[in-house]
Design a protein that fits this description.
D-Maltodextrin-Binding Protein, domain 2, 12% strand
Protein backbone atom coordinates (compact mmCIF):
# COMPACT_ATOMS: atom_id res chain seq x y z
CA UNK A 1 0.00 0.00 0.00
CA UNK A 2 1.22 3.56 -0.54
CA UNK A 3 3.34 5.37 2.04
CA UNK A 4 1.31 6.88 4.84
CA UNK A 5 2.27 9.74 7.10
CA UNK A 6 0.71 10.92 10.33
CA UNK A 7 1.57 13.85 12.59
CA UNK A 8 0.82 12.11 15.86
CA UNK A 9 2.29 12.18 19.33
CA UNK A 10 5.28 9.97 19.94
CA UNK A 11 6.73 10.05 16.43
CA UNK A 12 9.08 12.92 17.18
CA UNK A 13 10.53 11.10 20.17
CA UNK A 14 11.73 8.22 18.02
CA UNK A 15 12.58 10.11 14.84
CA UNK A 16 16.23 10.67 15.71
CA UNK A 17 16.73 7.01 16.58
CA UNK A 18 14.98 5.94 13.40
CA UNK A 19 17.05 8.20 11.15
CA UNK A 20 20.29 7.08 12.72
CA UNK A 21 19.39 3.43 12.39
CA UNK A 22 17.91 3.27 8.91
CA UNK A 23 17.63 5.15 5.66
CA UNK A 24 14.04 6.09 5.20
CA UNK A 25 12.46 4.41 2.27
CA UNK A 26 8.90 4.18 1.13
CA UNK A 27 7.03 2.28 -1.56
CA UNK A 28 5.10 4.57 -3.84
CA UNK A 29 2.41 1.98 -3.93
CA UNK A 30 2.53 0.81 -0.35
CA UNK A 31 1.70 1.67 3.23
CA UNK A 32 0.05 5.13 3.16
CA UNK A 33 -3.44 6.28 3.77
CA UNK A 34 -6.10 8.30 2.41
CA UNK A 35 -7.54 8.62 5.83
CA UNK A 36 -5.27 11.63 6.28
CA UNK A 37 -3.08 12.67 9.17
CA UNK A 38 -3.93 11.54 12.67
CA UNK A 39 -4.34 14.36 15.14
CA UNK A 40 -2.95 14.48 18.64
CA UNK A 41 -6.50 13.89 19.82
CA UNK A 42 -6.71 10.68 17.83
CA UNK A 43 -3.41 9.58 19.26
CA UNK A 44 -4.74 10.21 22.72
CA UNK A 45 -7.65 7.90 21.96
CA UNK A 46 -5.03 5.24 21.33
CA UNK A 47 -2.97 6.15 24.37
CA UNK A 48 -3.39 2.75 25.95
CA UNK A 49 -0.67 1.87 23.50
CA UNK A 50 2.23 3.87 24.79
CA UNK A 51 4.24 4.74 27.83
CA UNK A 52 5.28 8.39 27.89
CA UNK A 53 6.15 10.03 24.58
CA UNK A 54 7.97 7.04 23.10
CA UNK A 55 5.77 4.05 22.20
CA UNK A 56 8.77 1.74 22.63
CA UNK A 57 9.95 3.20 25.93
CA UNK A 58 8.92 0.28 28.13
CA UNK A 59 8.69 -3.44 27.61
CA UNK A 60 5.82 -5.74 28.36
CA UNK A 61 5.57 -7.86 31.47
CA UNK A 62 6.71 -11.45 31.23
CA UNK A 63 4.10 -13.61 29.52
CA UNK A 64 2.52 -10.65 27.77
CA UNK A 65 2.54 -10.17 24.01
CA UNK A 66 3.11 -6.72 22.52
CA UNK A 67 0.84 -5.65 19.68
CA UNK A 68 2.26 -2.65 17.84
CA UNK A 69 1.14 -0.39 15.01
CA UNK A 70 2.52 2.02 12.46
CA UNK A 71 1.74 5.72 12.75
CA UNK A 72 -1.50 6.08 10.81
CA UNK A 73 -5.10 5.56 11.91
CA UNK A 74 -5.98 2.46 9.90
CA UNK A 75 -3.05 0.48 11.28
CA UNK A 76 -3.80 1.64 14.83
CA UNK A 77 -7.39 0.44 14.52
CA UNK A 78 -6.17 -2.91 13.17
CA UNK A 79 -3.77 -3.25 16.10
CA UNK A 80 -6.70 -2.67 18.46
CA UNK A 81 -8.63 -5.38 16.60
CA UNK A 82 -5.75 -7.83 17.06
CA UNK A 83 -5.31 -6.92 20.74
CA UNK A 84 -9.00 -7.28 21.61
CA UNK A 85 -9.30 -10.56 19.69
CA UNK A 86 -6.33 -11.97 21.59
CA UNK A 87 -7.64 -10.77 24.95
CA UNK A 88 -10.95 -12.49 24.19
CA UNK A 89 -8.97 -15.74 24.01
CA UNK A 90 -7.23 -15.13 27.35
CA UNK A 91 -3.95 -13.77 25.98
CA UNK A 92 -2.30 -11.02 28.01
CA UNK A 93 -1.68 -8.05 25.70
CA UNK A 94 0.14 -4.73 25.83
CA UNK A 95 -0.38 -2.33 22.93
CA UNK A 96 2.33 -0.03 21.55
CA UNK A 97 0.54 2.07 18.96
CA UNK A 98 1.82 4.86 16.72
CA UNK A 99 5.39 3.52 16.68
CA UNK A 100 6.34 5.01 13.33
CA UNK A 101 7.02 3.81 9.81
CA UNK A 102 7.97 0.29 8.78
CA UNK A 103 11.63 1.33 8.85
CA UNK A 104 11.20 2.01 12.58
CA UNK A 105 9.12 -0.95 13.72
CA UNK A 106 10.55 -3.72 11.54
CA UNK A 107 13.93 -3.91 13.36
CA UNK A 108 11.99 -4.04 16.65
CA UNK A 109 9.97 -6.96 15.29
CA UNK A 110 13.11 -8.83 14.27
CA UNK A 111 14.43 -8.84 17.82
CA UNK A 112 11.11 -9.49 19.54
CA UNK A 113 10.55 -6.08 21.15
CA UNK A 114 7.19 -6.13 19.34
CA UNK A 115 5.38 -9.45 19.09
CA UNK A 116 2.70 -8.71 16.50
CA UNK A 117 1.92 -5.91 14.08
CA UNK A 118 -0.72 -5.58 11.36
CA UNK A 119 1.12 -5.11 8.07
CA UNK A 120 0.42 -5.16 4.33
CA UNK A 121 1.97 -8.06 2.47
CA UNK A 122 3.00 -6.29 -0.75
CA UNK A 123 4.58 -3.33 1.03
CA UNK A 124 6.32 -5.56 3.56
CA UNK A 125 7.88 -7.54 0.72
CA UNK A 126 8.81 -4.56 -1.45
CA UNK A 127 9.97 -2.18 1.29
CA UNK A 128 12.17 -4.31 3.53
CA UNK A 129 12.21 -8.01 2.68
CA UNK A 130 12.94 -8.05 -1.07
CA UNK A 131 12.77 -4.69 -2.86
CA UNK A 132 13.53 -6.42 -6.18
CA UNK A 133 10.59 -8.80 -5.96
CA UNK A 134 8.18 -8.91 -8.91
CA UNK A 135 5.49 -10.88 -7.06
CA UNK A 136 2.00 -9.43 -7.64
CA UNK A 137 -0.75 -11.80 -6.51
CA UNK A 138 -1.59 -12.51 -2.89
CA UNK A 139 -0.35 -16.09 -3.22
CA UNK A 140 2.93 -15.10 -4.87
CA UNK A 141 3.60 -12.29 -2.42
CA UNK A 142 2.91 -14.50 0.60
CA UNK A 143 5.05 -17.30 -0.83
CA UNK A 144 7.94 -14.87 -1.27
CA UNK A 145 7.52 -13.57 2.27
CA UNK A 146 7.49 -17.08 3.72
CA UNK A 147 10.70 -17.88 1.88
CA UNK A 148 12.57 -14.64 2.53
CA UNK A 149 11.57 -13.30 5.95
CA UNK A 150 14.30 -13.59 8.60
CA UNK A 151 14.09 -16.72 10.71
CA UNK A 152 12.72 -14.79 13.70
CA UNK A 153 9.59 -13.66 11.86
CA UNK A 154 6.61 -15.14 10.06
CA UNK A 155 3.37 -13.98 8.52
CA UNK A 156 0.03 -15.61 9.25
CA UNK A 157 -3.00 -15.93 6.97
CA UNK A 158 -3.72 -12.85 4.85
CA UNK A 159 -7.08 -11.11 5.13
CA UNK A 160 -9.17 -10.55 2.01
CA UNK A 161 -8.98 -6.86 3.02
CA UNK A 162 -6.56 -4.83 0.93
CA UNK A 163 -5.44 -1.22 1.06
CA UNK A 164 -3.95 -0.83 -2.39
CA UNK A 165 -3.77 1.53 -5.32
CA UNK A 166 -6.78 1.48 -7.61
CA UNK A 167 -8.05 3.15 -10.74
CA UNK A 168 -11.08 5.02 -9.44
CA UNK A 169 -13.88 6.92 -11.18
CA UNK A 170 -17.04 8.67 -10.07
CA UNK A 171 -20.27 6.70 -9.87
CA UNK A 172 -21.61 8.78 -12.76
CA UNK A 173 -18.66 7.86 -14.99
CA UNK A 174 -18.93 4.18 -14.02
CA UNK A 175 -22.65 4.17 -14.88
CA UNK A 176 -22.20 6.10 -18.13
CA UNK A 177 -19.58 3.71 -19.53
CA UNK A 178 -20.63 0.54 -17.66
CA UNK A 179 -17.27 0.30 -15.93
CA UNK A 180 -16.49 -2.53 -13.52
CA UNK A 181 -12.85 -3.39 -14.23
CA UNK A 182 -9.85 -1.45 -15.49
CA UNK A 183 -10.17 -3.34 -18.77
CA UNK A 184 -13.56 -1.70 -19.35
CA UNK A 185 -11.80 1.66 -19.75
CA UNK A 186 -10.07 0.70 -23.01
CA UNK A 187 -12.68 2.15 -25.42
CA UNK A 188 -12.86 5.42 -23.43
CA UNK A 189 -9.36 6.11 -22.06
CA UNK A 190 -8.36 8.24 -25.05
CA UNK A 191 -11.00 10.81 -24.05
CA UNK A 192 -10.06 10.84 -20.35
CA UNK A 193 -7.56 12.72 -18.21
CA UNK A 194 -5.89 10.54 -15.57
CA UNK A 195 -4.85 12.09 -12.26
CA UNK A 196 -2.21 10.79 -9.85
CA UNK A 197 1.03 11.85 -8.12
CA UNK A 198 3.79 12.81 -10.60
CA UNK A 199 5.71 9.57 -10.15
CA UNK A 200 2.70 7.56 -11.36
CA UNK A 201 3.61 8.65 -14.90
CA UNK A 202 6.73 6.48 -14.90
CA UNK A 203 6.10 3.91 -12.15
CA UNK A 204 6.05 0.34 -13.51
CA UNK A 205 2.52 -0.12 -12.16
CA UNK A 206 1.50 3.42 -13.15
CA UNK A 207 0.77 4.58 -16.69
CA UNK A 208 3.30 2.12 -18.21
CA UNK A 209 1.63 -0.78 -16.38
CA UNK A 210 -1.88 0.29 -17.34
CA UNK A 211 -0.79 0.44 -20.98
CA UNK A 212 1.07 -2.88 -20.88
CA UNK A 213 -1.60 -4.80 -18.98
CA UNK A 214 -4.79 -3.20 -20.26
CA UNK A 215 -3.86 -1.34 -23.43
CA UNK A 216 -4.84 2.03 -21.93
CA UNK A 217 -3.57 5.30 -23.37
CA UNK A 218 -5.19 8.31 -21.73
CA UNK A 219 -5.82 11.68 -23.37
CA UNK A 220 -3.43 13.28 -20.88
CA UNK A 221 -1.94 12.91 -17.42
CA UNK A 222 -2.50 15.44 -14.63
CA UNK A 223 0.31 15.26 -11.99
CA UNK A 224 -1.59 15.98 -8.80
CA UNK A 225 -0.07 17.24 -5.58
CA UNK A 226 -0.95 14.42 -3.20
CA UNK A 227 -1.54 10.67 -2.93
CA UNK A 228 -5.23 9.81 -2.74
CA UNK A 229 -5.76 12.98 -0.71
CA UNK A 230 -7.92 16.12 -0.94
CA UNK A 231 -6.30 17.39 -4.16
CA UNK A 232 -6.80 14.08 -5.96
CA UNK A 233 -10.35 13.66 -4.70
CA UNK A 234 -11.32 17.23 -5.61
CA UNK A 235 -9.91 16.79 -9.12
CA UNK A 236 -11.92 13.61 -9.58
CA UNK A 237 -15.23 14.78 -8.17
CA UNK A 238 -15.04 18.13 -10.00
CA UNK A 239 -14.40 16.48 -13.35
CA UNK A 240 -10.91 17.94 -13.77
CA UNK A 241 -9.78 14.33 -14.19
CA UNK A 242 -12.01 11.43 -15.16
CA UNK A 243 -9.99 8.67 -13.51
CA UNK A 244 -7.46 8.72 -10.68
CA UNK A 245 -5.18 6.63 -8.49
CA UNK A 246 -7.08 6.27 -5.19
CA UNK A 247 -6.35 3.87 -2.33
CA UNK A 248 -9.02 1.24 -1.80
CA UNK A 249 -9.77 2.15 1.83
CA UNK A 250 -10.08 5.89 1.27
CA UNK A 251 -13.24 6.93 3.17
CA UNK A 252 -14.31 9.25 0.35
CA UNK A 253 -14.94 6.21 -1.83
CA UNK A 254 -18.08 5.86 0.26
CA UNK A 255 -18.79 9.47 1.20
CA UNK A 256 -18.26 10.81 -2.36
CA UNK A 257 -19.80 7.75 -4.07
CA UNK A 258 -16.68 6.76 -6.02
CA UNK A 259 -16.06 3.44 -7.77
CA UNK A 260 -12.72 1.61 -7.60
CA UNK A 261 -12.37 -0.59 -10.67
CA UNK A 262 -11.28 -4.21 -10.29
CA UNK A 263 -7.73 -5.09 -11.36
CA UNK A 264 -7.96 -8.66 -12.71
CA UNK A 265 -4.49 -8.55 -14.28
CA UNK A 266 -2.80 -7.42 -11.06
CA UNK A 267 -1.22 -4.25 -12.37
CA UNK A 268 -1.01 -3.24 -8.71
CA UNK A 269 0.62 -5.71 -6.32
CA UNK A 270 -1.52 -7.30 -3.61
CA UNK A 271 -1.68 -5.30 -0.38
CA UNK A 272 -3.55 -7.68 1.92
CA UNK A 273 -3.68 -6.94 5.63
CA UNK A 274 -1.54 -9.62 7.24
CA UNK A 275 -0.31 -10.30 10.80
CA UNK A 276 3.47 -10.11 11.08
CA UNK A 277 4.55 -12.01 14.18
CA UNK A 278 7.68 -12.78 16.16
CA UNK A 279 7.89 -16.52 15.62
CA UNK A 280 9.04 -17.53 19.10
CA UNK A 281 5.83 -16.11 20.57
CA UNK A 282 3.44 -17.58 18.00
CA UNK A 283 1.47 -19.93 20.24
CA UNK A 284 -1.40 -21.98 18.75
CA UNK A 285 -3.91 -19.78 20.59
CA UNK A 286 -2.42 -16.58 19.15
CA UNK A 287 -2.18 -17.99 15.63
CA UNK A 288 -5.76 -19.26 15.69
CA UNK A 289 -7.13 -15.96 17.03
CA UNK A 290 -5.35 -13.83 14.44
CA UNK A 291 -6.20 -16.15 11.57
CA UNK A 292 -9.85 -15.96 12.62
CA UNK A 293 -9.65 -12.15 12.38
CA UNK A 294 -8.08 -12.35 8.94
CA UNK A 295 -10.77 -14.72 7.71
CA UNK A 296 -13.49 -12.16 8.53
CA UNK A 297 -11.73 -8.93 7.53
CA UNK A 298 -12.82 -7.62 4.12
CA UNK A 299 -11.90 -4.43 2.29
CA UNK A 300 -15.45 -3.18 2.78
CA UNK A 301 -15.24 -3.78 6.54
CA UNK A 302 -11.86 -2.06 6.74
CA UNK A 303 -13.23 0.91 4.81
CA UNK A 304 -16.14 1.24 7.24
CA UNK A 305 -13.74 1.16 10.19
CA UNK A 306 -11.63 3.87 8.53
CA UNK A 307 -14.73 6.03 8.12
CA UNK A 308 -15.67 5.51 11.77
CA UNK A 309 -12.16 6.35 13.00
CA UNK A 310 -11.09 9.12 10.63
CA UNK A 311 -14.32 10.76 9.47
CA UNK A 312 -16.60 10.23 12.47
CA UNK A 313 -13.67 10.53 14.92
CA UNK A 314 -14.77 7.54 16.96
CA UNK A 315 -12.46 6.02 19.55
CA UNK A 316 -10.21 3.42 17.92
CA UNK A 317 -10.84 0.79 20.58
CA UNK A 318 -14.58 1.25 20.21
CA UNK A 319 -14.35 0.92 16.43
CA UNK A 320 -12.35 -2.29 16.80
CA UNK A 321 -14.70 -3.74 19.44
CA UNK A 322 -17.79 -2.97 17.38
CA UNK A 323 -16.38 -4.77 14.35
CA UNK A 324 -15.30 -7.81 16.36
CA UNK A 325 -18.78 -8.07 17.87
CA UNK A 326 -20.38 -7.76 14.43
CA UNK A 327 -18.46 -10.82 13.18
CA UNK A 328 -18.75 -12.89 16.36
CA UNK A 329 -15.14 -12.65 17.50
CA UNK A 330 -15.58 -11.06 20.92
Amino acid sequence: MPTRTAATAGVAAIAAVALAAVTACSSSSSSSTATGTASATAAANSATASSGSNPLSSGAASGTVVVGSANFPEDEVLAEVYALALEAKGVKVTTKLNIGSREVYYPQMEKGAITIIPDYNGSLLEDVVDPKSTAKTTTDVDTALAAELPSSLEVLAPAPAQDSDSVTVTAATAAKYHLKTIADLKPYAASMVFGAPPEFKTRPDGLPGLKANYGLTFKSFDPLGDESGPITLAALTSGKVQAADVFTTTPQIVTDKLVSLADPKFDFAAQNVIPLIYKADATPTIVAALNAVSAKLTTAALLQMDIAASVNKEDYTTVAQNWLQSVGLS
